[in-house]
Structures are given as C-alpha cells and as structure tokens.
Amino acid sequence: MATETTSDRQGRTSRVESLDAIEAAADYLDVISARIDANRLKIEANGERAAMRHSAEATSDQRVADARVEAARMMGDAYGQSAEFIALNQAFAVAPEAFKLRYWYEAQEEALAGKKLVVVDSSLVEEKGELLFDLRSVTEPRGRNDVVPAGTIPMGVR
Questions:
Q1: Predicted confidence (pLDDT) per residue in 62-120, tens digit
Q2: Potential cystine with 123: which of 30, 60, 74, 129 (Cβ 3.0-4.6 Å)?
Q3: 82-94 burial string, b = 16+ CB within 10 Å, else e?
C-alpha cells in the first residue's frame, strides 16, 4: 500500500493513497458483505425451520386429536354393540322359541321390505276361501277398507 504525501502552497499537507489501497478496501467490503449475507441466510434458514417445525407440530397435534376422537367413537360403538349382544342373550335365555320366531319374522320383514307380496291361502286352491287383493301402494297409509274382495275388482286387474 503506497501513500504519497504532498504539500500545497499554503503549507498544508495531504496524503494520497495509491490504487492498491482502494482495491484492498473494495475487497474488504466484499468480504464483509459476504459475512453479512451469510449471517442473513442463517437467520432466514432458522426462521423457516422454526416455521416448518411449528406447522408440523400443529399438524401432528391435529392428527392426534382426530385419532382420539375416532378412538372414542369406535369405543362407543363397541360398547353399544356389546350391550345389544348381552340384551339379546338375556332375551334368548328367557324365551328361546319366542326369540327365534321374532328374529325369523324380522329377517322376513327386512328381506321383503318394499316388495309387493301376494299370499295365497291353501283353502283358495280347494275353492273354499275368498281371494283378496291389496290395492294399496307401498307408500300409502293403510286402513281397514283397503282390501277389496275379488268379485268387486274390475276385469283388467285380476
């Protein structure tokens, strides 16, 4: 680093640094700038890491809460099913034949739900009984006068 000292006419002296010193100062500023950038990048990375950790923790907490709610729901369902099973077992112990008959009827109701059904009595085959037709639709309310004897039904309906 070279410096030149000069004096003017009034006796004042001044120093002029050479170009090497200016270039060194520019390089020094680049180094300081790089250190500042490195520190800034570290701070930004730490901030992003903290934000990602917070987001992951929040997601994790939500999933744990959802799992606990689902577990409680499943336990409630299991308790309800076991209570139903115990009640069925007690009902069967009291009257096994009535229990079997009741469940047979319930199974028939479930299997035939919403289907039209015609039941023919065996006495009709022997021409002793009376044939009745149910003209109600499945969705109509049922009353006493909905069953019509066969003799009163128009010809096309038989």
A1: 999 999 999 999 999 999 999 999 999 999 999 999 999 988 888 888 888 888 776 66
A2: 129
A3: eeeeeeeeeeeee
The secondary structure of 4-38 as a DSSP string is: EEEE-TTS-EEEEE-HHHHHHHHHHHHHHHHHHHH
CA distance 59 to 36: 35
Amino acid at 42: K
Q: Identify the bridge partners of residue 133 per DSSP, sorted by sequence position.
A: 148
Q: Report the distance separating Cα 62 and Cα 58, nearest Å.
A: 6
Q: Count CB-CB contacts under 10 A for residue 12.
A: 8
Using alpha carbons, select from 132, 134, 105 the residue that is nearest to residue 121: 132
Residue 114 in tokens: 């919403």
- How many Å apart are CA 135 and CA 153, to the nearest integer? 10
